[in-house]
Amino acid sequence: MRHERHVEQAHAQRAVVLWDALERVPFRFEYFEVAAQQPATVGSPYLVTQGAPETAEYTGIINITGRRNGIVYFTAPRGMLIVMLMKMNESDVSHDNLCDLVGEVANTISGNARRDFGKEFMISAPEVVSGNGKDVKPPTGCRPFVIPINWRSHSAKLVVCLK
To answer: In order of start, what are the domains of the chain with their CATH numbers?
Structure first.
């Protein structure tokens, strides 16, 4: 029981540290405003206490190494990605283009974070998975922190899970 309480406190402390970092650093979501001509709004971030957050149809995953290790991923529904492509004057809304877009968004957001957090924050090329409910497993001993992203009438998530 005592060990479980210590683990809970450690997870809560990591969440506070991450939230402080996100507030201090201009964690940028201007991809939506620049590429899709309309800014996104960010909802209230929250810590997932059990399991992994549900994913949408398309997910771009970035592995993080360095001072912190873990994953960051952007997950969005097909409809949102199609509208984004159309706002970018792209008529090809094929599965491959949707995969490219979700990977590009994940990579851009993670690249901005790397620039803000410094050289010790190393990011991988994006891995893209598609299919509703595909599980993205957070690293062992790490609780995901979800940042809801709203764009037009669509909702997506940026999930951060760093140790």
So the answer is: 2-162 (3.40.1550.10)
